[in-house]
Amino acid sequence: MTSQPHHIVVVGGGFAGLWATRALDDPSVRITLIDRRNHHLFQPLLYQVATAGLSAPDIAAPLRHILDAQHNVEVRLAEVTDLHPQQREVELGDGTRVRYDTLLLAAGATHAYFGNDHWAPFAPGLKTLDDAVRLRRKMLLAFERAEMETDPAKRDAWLNFAIVGAGPTGVELAGTLAEIARHTLKDEFRHIDPRKARVRLIEAGPRVLPSFPQDLTDKARAQLEKLGVEVVTGTPVSDINAEGYRLGEHFIAAKTVVWAAGVAASPLARALGVPLDRAGRVLVQPDLSVPGHPEIFVGGDLASVQQDGKPVPGVAPAAKQMGKHIARAIKARLAGKPTTPFRYQDFGNLATIGRMAAIVHLGKLKFSGPLAWWFWLAAHVYFLIGFRNRFVVLVNWAMAYISYQRAARIIFGDAHDERKPGGDTR
Amino acid sequence: MTSQPHHIVVVGGGFAGLWATRALDDPSVRITLIDRRNHHLFQPLLYQVATAGLSAPDIAAPLRHILDAQHNVEVRLAEVTDLHPQQREVELGDGTRVRYDTLLLAAGATHAYFGNDHWAPFAPGLKTLDDAVRLRRKMLLAFERAEMETDPAKRDAWLNFAIVGAGPTGVELAGTLAEIARHTLKDEFRHIDPRKARVRLIEAGPRVLPSFPQDLTDKARAQLEKLGVEVVTGTPVSDINAEGYRLGEHFIAAKTVVWAAGVAASPLARALGVPLDRAGRVLVQPDLSVPGHPEIFVGGDLASVQQDGKPVPGVAPAAKQMGKHIARAIKARLAGKPTTPFRYQDFGNLATIGRMAAIVHLGKLKFSGPLAWWFWLAAHVYFLIGFRNRFVVLVNWAMAYISYQRAARIIFGDAHDERKPGGDTR
């Protein structure tokens, strides 16, 4: 062939984008991977950074480094702000356009307040490393403020924590925060008893971790309560402001509210001009291409895929599988062969709750407690990219486990300025 | 005794403040340790965080955790903004005052631009973890910008790095940055060759690392040049702006200029109303107390101490020794005994330059190169507080050494916004 290699633009270096890119290590295609961050993030452990168990670099690796040996890939650190499907171009933040032959849109999701965007400044969510460091700062500073406060009502407000949403992230945050209050911080203050901190997990739906069967959900709730979390289900939060939140008839004074109640697809999906589902995700074809645009694929959290009457979940294994499927579909197209429909292979569902507490659902196998926790730990450490990360994460966890200490309890920014660093309201 | 315990206020949880506090583990005194950060920082390794070799939490430990078992200590996260020596009170950022019987002022130093404060936005310095994360971001983003730039002159400006000041921090930053450009990043870009980055170390004085003897200084310079650093001595930088810097007659286009040329004492020293030296440090009595105020001691970088006609250097061992001396002096006073003069015990002087490059001066013993580097590494890892930190740092370094990779190459904040996070100009 003397023609130019086929140019694939991949938007997003998460699990879907990165796995597709790696599977396309072939000199007949040229790939431009565009991400607005310089790193691939191991999102399943992001809550550990937010709760000071891990450092940010422990769960992230530079995209350039991951891909340095794959010579058909160019990594660009830039934000894609618009798509022009008719011209086959993506538009970057600085106005430049990049032309593609094939596009993989894997820009992921962000947390969403479902029409209550004014809650965002008071109830930050957790999607990026910046979010995690900001959340860590907010949680740790709350104990510091409580220690300085002499008014008992205000002190209680600083020691009142609420996590809104009992999906995996909400459960992890609540369980770990309870552990920090009860164990990590217990001897460190002179005026407050951190064990009296109230950690509340609030879910509008009827139960925690609704993607699990009822019996495991019940076990998860029992484990949360044993760790000291107060679980409230069936009640939506109806308002959040700087002083606290409203739950049914009651306004609860709480200085730390965390949003884990929902995600919405990247707004980029709208630029495709095709039907989206209620969460803004693209209703893709069976082969994950976009209706009317066989040259555009969508993967990861941005793709809405139904399988056997149920949605494919927004988890890392599904995103990786989509990425690999899309790579195969692109190769099939280039070879003039038909594409096959995507099928999600569900290897099981795990959720961690806190120290020695987790639930595992693998086909007919269901278990919970310490064994589930070890299983979860092993699986997650194994899947972290790169040997160094795996090993250091293991060491950090082993030390945290033995000592009850959390290594990353660093508050960035000055103590007197609550809005640093990057203290905006994203 | 039925009287109230003697109340000691310690301002600053650096080496002087923390070592004094630990040496005063005695129920007859009550200590309030005030710091505006929640952590003790192992400052000698701060440049490793700036150059992405270590995570911020690797070199910092929460003050509350370090001191949790010392029951006569209360840690307060607050900024001391003023002193009232006549009333024996310190004033906090929120206006509250804390009364002391004895005060230890150990608020340290900050980087100083010597009348050129308008250079600060273009040439950030390195004193805190926030500084280090910001510097890391600035350096890594420069390579990203160069990769995106199509104009060759602008591209060169992004690949031009200048470190102003060839003291220990400047030398460490220059040597490590050269290593990153030549080894860590070498295969990761498609449009630039990071090895062509120009790393210049600029010193107004006649030689690098002037606290070392001439022969070791010469060896340090040779090692820097071998690592790829261009060393310029005897020439001060006469201007710095967003486009570059002026050196003698020439203006050099350089997007990344780092300030390592000088420190000034905390402005709190002025509130004492006693004579200061040219760098703003307190000219203390031989026992490290303040003239006219036997109840106030000054330690660490804030104290100006002459010994045998030379100033005691602003290094961690000196600060620790001062802290311990002040603890002894306070105990002597409480027992009605005279205090003794402080004597700095110089155990030697080490400086690291880069991979396998360092110089060591221990009394009559002088050596350089790989052996000096291993010696430096062992000493610094040994002195890091706490087992966990030591071990993880060792692992990180071992991995970095084997792989040439740097684990903490994470750019926080959005790619399109150069001013986040905490992107102010401190």
Automatic annotation (TrEMBL), chains A, B:
Cofactor: FAD
Keywords per UniProt: FAD, Flavoprotein, Membrane, Oxidoreductase, Transmembrane, Transmembrane helix
Recorded GO MF terms: NAD(P)H dehydrogenase (quinone) activity
GO process annotations (BP): aerobic electron transport chain
Domain of life: Bacteria
Domain FAD/NAD(P)-binding, residue spans: 7-323
Keyword Electron transport carried by entry: no
Domain External alternative NADH-ubiquinone oxidoreductase-like C-terminal: 348-402
Transmembrane region(s): 373-399
Family: Belongs to the NADH dehydrogenase family.
Matches recorded under PANTHER family: 64 KDA MITOCHONDRIAL NADH DEHYDROGENASE (EUROFUNG), APOPTOSIS-INDUCING FACTOR 1
Name the UniProt record assigns to this protein: NAD(P)/FAD-dependent oxidoreductase
